[in-house]
Design a protein that fits this description.
This protein is α+β, with helices and mostly antiparallel strands. It contains nine helices and nine strands. The strands form two sheets. Strands 1, 2, 4, 5, 6, 7 and 8 form a seven-stranded mixed β-sheet that branches. Strands 3-9 form a two-stranded antiparallel sheet.
């Protein structure tokens, strides 16, 4: 009889263990509620034993977001799709492991005192106070680099795409994967710089379309097909500070700019204007325009490559006038022509 009772108790315990929902140890009720909402929104499913680690990262992200919020009252920080990553993981997967400033030393600065050749594209007429080349129609949709430190290749490719459209071609999605795989001067998912990406494109004879050489989010063997080339880089220049950024983006002969920045505070960004930032460059993006220039609350409009479900539909706004995030230090533009076959 005693044996039967013990067996019955063990069966009940086993059944309860199978039906009891997983619970995360620690955290107050609000944190647990936010955690469950986060998992549902981003369809997060974790291996056995991993959830406690991810929840710890999530709680740390909430505290980090509070600190960022206090420093940036015009922005909004909180839960993002990266909230279950540690800062170290976020840096490894989404930013540059290193940035070589010396690769910009010999890039000639654009001379705005010379007459600028008007673009063949006539659909854009920049306003001196508010303008965005993205809404003008010379930028491709927001990309998602995935867990690969290829932001530098995206920034370079996006800039070639825009100037190819502006210089007389059609707006065409080009292959950043070609740069990741084939540019031997840079490190693919391990990082690189837009300047050496331009050099590669120029030496290779152009970029294939993205449709023919799709993005994989990892390093691969070079599959470049010169017969498929659409756009070629014929020249590239650097810009001098935030004034150079404005001269380029506000000119009818200008356009978007590749910029490399400090994105250390961007993991928890949800929207609004960033007003505090570091200067340790670790990410490259595309600056597409500006708002309220020479007025209170002026900011740069910056297109990221972390997907349209991050920030403001894939964008971040960075206050103008303080060289925040080193935004004016490593700006570059290109001339891109249709490849003559």
């Amino acid at each position: 009889m005693r044996t039967l009772i013990v067996l019955a108790v063990l069966v009940c315990v086993a059944l309860a263990a199978r039906t009891r929902p997983n619970k995360v140890i620690g955290g107050d009720e609000k944190e647990r509620t936010m955690w469950n909402e986060f998992k549902q929104k981003y369809n997060k499913i974790y291996a056995v034993g991993e959830e406690a680690k991810r929840f710890a990262n999530f709680k740390a992200s909430l505290q980090r977001a509070q600190r960022s919020q206090a420093l940036n009252p015009q922005a909004k920080f909180g839960v993002t799709k990266f909230s279950d990553l540690s800062e170290e993981e976020f840096t490894k997967f989404y930013k540059l492991s290193k940035f070589d400033k010396t690769k910009y030393a010999n890039v000639p600065a654009k001379n705005f005192s010379l007459p600028q050749k008007p673009h063949k594209f006539t659909g854009c007429n920049p306003d001196p106070t508010n303008y965005d080349w993205f809404t003008c129609g010379v930028c491709t949709p927001v990309y998602d680099q995935g867990q690969c430190g290829s932001c530098w290749a995206f920034s370079a490719t996006e800039t070639v795409e825009s100037y190819f459209a502006l210089d007389g071609g059609s707006l065409t999605q080009l292959s950043m994967q070609q740069i990741v795989d084939c540019d031997t001067s840079d490190g693919g998912c391990n990082g690189g710089e837009p300047t050496t990406a331009y050099q590669y494109v120029e030496q290779a004879g152009g970029l294939d379309p993205l449709a023919d050489y799709p993005y994989t989010g990892e390093n691969g063997q070079c599959q470049f097909n010169q017969q498929e080339v659409v756009a070629d880089v014929t020249n590239y220049n650097s810009l001098n500070g935030e004034q150079g950024l404005y001269q380029q983006t506000s000119s009818s002969s200008g356009g978007p700019v590749s910029v490399c920045v400090d994105a250390s505070s961007w993991q928890d960004y949800q929207g609004g204007v960033l007003t505090q930032c570091g200067n340790d460059v670790d990410h490259c993006v595309q600056l597409t325009g500006y708002a309220n220039y020479n007025q209170n609350g002026a900011y740069w409009i910056v297109r990221n490559s972390w997907g349209a479900d991050w920030g403001q539909n894939g964008f971040i706004w960075v206050a103008i006038g303080q060289d925040l995030c080193s935004i004016g230090d490593y700006g570059t533009v290109v001339s891109a022509d249709q490849k003559k076959r």
